[in-house]
């Protein structure tokens, strides 16, 4: 079971989370012992009202001391504790303690001791060893960021390099594009279901808190709605999409026909890719969530092993 979601900060101030498709929303709340995201509560309450699973994160900057950061985070987020998954953001940028895993451990341990909640530890895959050493010691989950590239993408069912390392949540792009928001978004896949999410949010290892109430909705979405979600990338690609549609009770052929009709009526510019030295068709296909066979067929390539720099490939 996986879920799709986004994480946001003040860079997305004003985003309408009721309009953006997401199973979960993780909001930056605080940084160091001096900064509160001015849009955090508005975004959090809007996501809650829209029935999203909730998360919050604190950005460690190391300036005021671990204890001060812990207190600042807790004092500004008390109303969210117990219903939101917690994460701490450990990055090289704007972090005077980068490389000092003892400081990271002090912050994480302080949150656990004062809230009873074990936060996820977020960071780039390049610093995975630092993250994992603390996570293993304190029995915390990991939220790892690693991108294949910076090209726009929708949700991906199987992000690049998936499975190469263990994590509870994988952030795979900062150039995500979703309906309802005209700008870049961080896209994530969570390797859990809603019940597991609420276990992460629960205090003192208690039974999972009740999931946020969701507004009444039809038991099954319309085929037009599903077609729009397919276009946005929510249902994956190829055989994975077919399997997921069948499992959800939809006819893949019918949905594809509606997708084709929507694209025919208002078709965006087709994506292309210009081959660079060292590229191969398999790597290009993985980057765009398709297969090398599909790219070869679309571009009339008889020998998939033979492409050349400067060649323009049609992606879709």
What would the keywords be for this entry?
316 residues, alpha/beta, 8-stranded mixed barrel, 10 helices, 11 strands, 18% strand
Give me the secondary-structure topology.
Layout: E1 3-8, E2 24-31, E3 35-36, H1 40-49, E4 53-59, H2 66-77, E5 85-89, H3 101-115, E6 120-124, H4 128-138, E7 142-145, E8 169-176, E9 185-190, H5 194-201, H6 223-231, H7 238-247, H8 252-265, E10 272-274, H9 281-287, H10 292-298, E11 312-314
* Order of neighbouring strands in the sheet with most strands: 1-2-4-5-6-7-8-9
- Name the shape in a single word: globular
State the secondary-structure class.
alpha/beta
Beta-strand portion reads 15-25%
Main beta sheet = 8 strands, mixed, barrel
Radius of gyration: 21 Å
The average pLDDT value, as a whole number, equals: 89
Which parts are unreliable, with pLDDT below 50 for 5 consecutive residues or more? 205-218
N- to C-terminal separation? 28 Å
| Separate helix tally | 10
The percent range for helix content is: 25-40%
Secondary-structure element order, N to C: EEEHEHEHEHEEEHHHHEHHE
The beta-strand count equals 11
Explain what the structure shows:
The chain has 316 residues and is α/β, with parallel strands linked by helices. The protein contains ten helices and eleven strands. It has helices at residues 40-49, 66-77, 101-115, 128-138, 194-201, 223-231, 238-247, 252-265, 281-287, 292-298; strands at 3-8, 24-31, 35-36, 53-59, 85-89, 120-124, 142-145, 169-176, 185-190, 272-274, 312-314. The protein has an eight-stranded mixed β-barrel, surrounded by four helices. The chain has a two-stranded antiparallel ribbon with strand order 10-11. Strand 6, helix 4 and strand 7 (142-145) form a beta-alpha-beta unit. The two termini are 28 Å apart. Mean pLDDT is 89; it is low at 205-218.
């Amino acid at each position: 079971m996986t879920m799709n979601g986004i994480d946001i900060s003040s860079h997305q101030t004003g985003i309408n989370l009721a309009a953006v498709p997401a199973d979960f929303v993780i909001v930056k709340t605080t940084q160091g012992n001096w900064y509160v995201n001015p849009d955090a509560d508005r975004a959090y309450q809007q996501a809650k009202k829209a029935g999203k699973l909730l998360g919050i994160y604190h950005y460690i900057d190391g300036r005021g001391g671990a204890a001060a950061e812990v207190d600042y985070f807790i004092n500004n987020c008390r109303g969210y504790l117990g219903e939101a998954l917690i994460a701490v953001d450990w990055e090289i940028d704007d972090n005077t303690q980068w490389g000092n895993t003892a400081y990271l451990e002090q912050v994480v341990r302080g949150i656990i001791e004062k809230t009873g909640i074990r936060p996820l530890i977020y960071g780039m895959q390049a610093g995975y060893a630092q993250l994992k050493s603390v996570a293993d010691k304190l029995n915390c989950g990991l939220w790892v960021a690693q991108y294949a590239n910076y090209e726009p993408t929708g949700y991906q069912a199987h992000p690049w390099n998936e499975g190469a390392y263990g994590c509870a949540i994988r952030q795979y792009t900062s150039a995500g594009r979703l309906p309802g928001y005209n700008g870049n978004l961080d896209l994530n896949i969570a390797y859990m279901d809603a019940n597991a999410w609420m276990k992460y949010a629960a205090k003192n290892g208690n039974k999972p808190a009740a999931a946020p109430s969701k507004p009444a909705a039809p038991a099954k979405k319309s085929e037009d709605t599903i077609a729009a979600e397919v276009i946005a990338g929510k249902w994956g690609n190829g055989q994975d999409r077919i399997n997921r549609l069948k499992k959800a009770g939809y006819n893949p052929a019918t949905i594809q026909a509606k997708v084709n009709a929507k694209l025919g009526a208002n078709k965006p510019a087709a994506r292309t890719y210009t081959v660079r030295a060292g590229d191969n068709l398999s790597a290009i296909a993985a980057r765009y969530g398709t297969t090398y066979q599909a790219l070869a067929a679309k571009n009339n390539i008889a020998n998939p092993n033979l492409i050349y720099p400067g060649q323009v490939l049609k992606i879709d």
